[in-house]
Amino acid sequence: MGDAFCLKWNNHQTTLVSVFDKLFECESLVDCTLAAEGRQLKAHKVVLSACSPYLEELIRNHDDRHPIIIFNNIRYEELKAMLEYMYRGEVNVSQEQLDSFLKVAESLKIKGLTDQGGGHKNTEKEEQRTGKKRRRRTSSESTQSEEKETLKPEPKSEPIDEANSEPIEDLTIEEEDDEYGPPGPGTSQGSFSSQDFNNWQVSGDITNDEVFLAAQQEINSQGNPAPGM
């Protein structure tokens, strides 16, 4: 027995969707007609059966080659939007028409829009609402966490430079004693102390001028010794 090779069509689903979309737009190879509000839409049995178990059972129970299905409680615009969803996998619906569109999908058991059709309700509107709620919750939680956090200033401690931390010496000024000490008794040459001056003060009628002159003479006599000495 020879080897078996698996040949895969990578874009199979995309190609089928695009082909059915073209057939729907051109109304080519159609074998079914849907009617609402006196207006008709051409479709394909295989697509209706694949997207709705309710329509599949309805078509199977009719042996007509080209059956005509009339919907009394469905508007034409809603029916057209439903066919676009089945052929293309998506459709744009306004917010005002969203509730009625979902009710029609529920009654026809359209897959992907109702649980009875084997799928789950999945609309971009619901996803956007959920995303907004999550973003609001995240933003509120982040705001609360920021409010709870308080910034406490920490005291700054700067290191003390050891080179500049030398102890300051107390500078005191000491008065130096007289290098020469207290003057000795008597008088020196060229000087006359108050003690010597007081020795010349005598009691009597002698005035101070006379005493000063006598003291001056005594000093001069000490500075000029008598000849022969």
From TrEMBL:
One of the protein's GO biological processes: R3/R4 cell fate commitment
Coiled coil ranges: none
Biased composition (Acidic residues): 160-180
Subcellular location: Nucleus
Keyword check for Nuclease: no
Annotated Polar residues bias: 188-206, 217-229
Every BTB domain range: 30-95
Region (Disordered) location: 113-229
Matching CDD domains: BTB_POZ_BAB-like
Keyword Transcription regulation: yes
Identification of the protein by name: BTB domain-containing protein
